[in-house]
Automatic annotation (TrEMBL):
Protein name: ArsA family ATPase
Species this protein is from: Saccharopolyspora halophila
Residue intervals of the ArsA/GET3 Anion-transporting ATPase-like domain: 21-292
Domain of life of the native organism: Bacteria
Classification via InterPro entries: ArsA/GET3_ATPase-like, ATPase_ArsA/GET3, P-loop_NTPase
Amino acid sequence: MSQPQRPAQVDVDGLLDDPETRVIVCCGSGGVGKTTTAAALAVRAAERGRKAVVLTIDPARRLAQALGLRELGNTPKRVEPEGFEPAGELNAMMLDMRRTFDDMVLTHAGEERAQQILSNPFYQTISTSFSGTQEYMAMEKLGQLSASGEWDLIVVDTPPSRSALDFLDAPQRLSTVLDGRLIKMLSSPAKAGGRGLRKIVGAGFGIFAKAVSTIIGGQLLNDAARFVQAFDSTFGGFRERAEHTYRLLRSPGTAFLVVAAPEPDALREAAYFVERLAGESMPLTGLVANRTHPVVAEVSGTRATAVADELESAETAPLAAGVLRVHADRVAIAEREKRMLARFTRAHPEVSLVGVPALPSDVHDLAGLREIGRRLAGE
């Protein structure tokens, strides 16, 4: 019986060194180490001569602390801790969803109209809590960074989500809602004294208006109508911006890395994401199997357990017996991870793979990020 073919290895340093690589997107389910992976890639790229910026979505402050910064803001900040002298340049920022949305309004609207939008209660609601807003604004910020031409490499830490589809769907979903028929209906009373909406729904207008007001509140309905009137006439091109983002994501200079822990749920999510990326013709570079537990010593778990039993029976070396049992447990974990990754590889033989051995403790400083970078590169 032939052995299953081993997956190709992701050449991380080759990816980082290639001047054609302009964007790296780290994606996957929550809790698998996307933020740390993205930061480690940016650190290593800077060390190897790239002018890199990492865009993180993680609101926790641990990344800023690891980079030696008090905090991260909505614009890139140079990372220059003592003793860190990369051949290139490292910058970091954390997405502020509301600020990014506000900046879009200020950029595309005149001062008076921008203030009408920014002060509108309906806008204040959707800019912070509308479904898909965070994902859309992450891609909006990516578009801004790319358009500036200031960076050799942009590394994106995508928002954590339970569904692998959220990240890819959000720009189109949000633009469809804001450009869609319901919004046009809400804007028609402001544009035509209510006649537009009455024309759409006919004789049932009163019932319709009463029902909508009951569901979302009469004041919110009025706020929404005023918001759309100001917003739509200023820059109703959300769909065009989403399409521009998709073109950027599909371009040859973009590389997607799906990050997953060697656990069933994370690998199922990774498989779903891999299939969706393929369906969208997105350039997938490979899978990062994060926090693996490879075994160095060539002693099987069965043999280690047997020797530990003998030592404990003879009561001669309890410490050695304990070490052997820890090794046996480690072998069991490593074998389980190998089986799960092999199952993933059989289902997706075209996907390259890089395993990143777990560190003894959580990453909390630049040294830890550099070590993750070395492990990503197979050193």
